[in-house]
Amino acid sequence: MNTLSITPSQIIEYLYCPRYTFFEYVLDIPQYEEKYYKVIRGREVHLKRARENADYLRRRIGVVDKQLNQYLSNASLRGEVDEVLWLEDGTMAPLDYKFAVYKDKVFETYRTQLYCYAWLIEQNYGRPVKRAFLVYTRSQNKLVEIPVHPEHLEEVQQAATAISQIILQNHYPKATKYRKRCVNCTYRNVCTR
After folding, report:
1. pLDDT level of residue 189 (50, 70, 90 thresholds)
2. Of 161, 67, 147, nearest to 114 (Cα)?
3. Would strands 92-98 and 131-136 be described as parallel, antiparallel, or unpaired?
């Protein structure tokens, strides 16, 4: 079967509800996410951090080298990683900045994005990724470590395959089983249950 090159955002949307993929990429109905303040502000923070931290190494987590703003791809996925880290134990890790306050919980969307980046790093650099990092810029740049296990990578790989099937075969998937997610969905007026 043919596959498409998709983004971490598409995988996050698919895992939230598979019908996002159908409405946005099969029917071509946009979400207008650019209107949301946090999305716009987050993009500004990424650019600012990239300039400010150009020479900064995170010694306390064993960073021996890093690359900023790396655009990576494989046969199924593409994305830009804020920082690709080489760690002293021989593994690698993605680091991503979030314009957010840390409240003792890491959102699943953030984890999924890091798992996507871990998959890209392993395939592009040929080294294992066992952990990833988030920096919460609205909590005094709090650094949070996220474990990365093989099952996490399998989940995003399976989602990438499913997204390609929906788009290439015009497949109308089942909606999420979590009905609370439908309340604020941008597609609630066109979705059938």
Report:
1. confident
2. 147
3. parallel
Q: CA 56, CA 68: separation in Å to the nearest integer?
A: 11
DSSP letter string, 12-71: HHHHH-HHHHIIIIIS-----GGG-HHHHHHHHHHHHHHHHTTT---GGGTEEEEEEEEE
Is the pTM of the predicted complex or chain greater than 0.90?
no
**What is the C-alpha end-to-end distance of the chain, expressed in Å?**
29
Measure the CA–CA gap between 92 and 64, rounded to whole angstroms: 10
Considering only the C-alpha atoms of the chain, give the largest distance between any 2 of them, rounded to a whole number of Å: 51
For the stretch 5-28, what's the b/e string if a residue is b when 16 or more beta carbons lie within 10 angstroms of its beta carbon? ebbbbbbbbbbbbbbbbbbbbbee
Residues 17 and 26: their CA atoms lie apart, in Å, by: 15
